[in-house]
Amino acid sequence: MNQSGAPRHEGTDPPSPQSTMAQFLWQQLPYVVALVLAIAGVAYTNVSHQPLVGYWEFLALAICIVCVVTKWPETQGKEARLRLIWTQALHWVAVLVTMNIILVSGVQQLLPTPATGLVLLTLLALGTFLAGVNLLSLQISFLGLAMGIAVPAISWLKQSVFFFLLGAVLLIGLGITFWFRQDSRPRSALSDTNSQVEA
Questions:
Q1: For every one of its 199 residues, what pLDDT tens digit does the chain have, with 9 covering 90 and above?
Q2: What would the DSSP string read from start to end of 8-47?
Q3: Exposure of 81 by Cβ count < 10 A (0-12 exposed, 13-18 middle, 19+ buried)?
Q4: Contact, 109 vs 119, CB < 8 A?
Q5: Crossing angle for the helix pair 113-135 and 17-48, nearest 10 degrees?
Q6: pTM of the shown model
Q7: CA distance 132 to 64
């Protein structure tokens, strides 16, 4: 007679929280890398005062590949997969053509070099967001939204570097003060207990 109340299923243990978190982070890695590369491109353009023409084209093509790879497992059938490829290819070719129009020498002379990087990031953000809406992908839409939010954030940080540094100094000062207070509490508690013992 079987004494166990419930049947045992070997090898079907629930995944640990660490493994599910690692798997989630691994799935979000392409989007995070694309966002970091986009912001790094704007930062480099601001420092070097030279537009990175090939860099933005590479980034647009990389996001196109991420879009296709994201929806590939959900797309069934040869026709649907071919439609996914050519619609995304047309979408990103349009983004690349618009970027190259901005980089034409006549148009670029109207924009300062740091502004060119922000305009290209804005076009990349718009293309990414619209691709996410077209594919009904929350991650790709969020990536485009994050890139779009990065444009005014970078501009604001550039204009208010002094306030940013002042805030950083204040935060560091508060952190040091809090740390010294935490260090002084055990010593005062020890001196109080020693005085009570001596009394």
A1: 454 444 554 555 566 666 776 776 677 777 788 888 887 877 777 666 666 777 888 889 989 998 998 888 888 889 999 999 999 999 999 999 998 888 776 676 777 777 777 888 899 999 999 999 998 888 888 888 888 887 787 767 666 655 555 556 666 765 665 555 555 555 544 455 555 555 5
A2: --TT-PPPPHHHHHHHHHHHHHHHHHHHHHHHHHHHHHHH
A3: middle
A4: no
A5: 150
A6: 0.65
A7: 11
Identity at 128, one-letter amino acid code: T
Tokens 């053509």 sit at which residue? 97
How many alpha carbons lie under 13 Å from residue 53 in its C-beta half-sphere?
A: 8
Measured CA to CA, the distance from residue 24 to residue 102 in angstroms comes to 37
CA distance readout (Å), 65 to 12, 76, 87, 153:
35, 18, 12, 27
Amino acid found at 8: R
Location of structure tokens 């966002």: 35
User: What is the rounded distance in angstroms from the CA atom of residue 95 to the CA atom of residue 87?
Assistant: 13
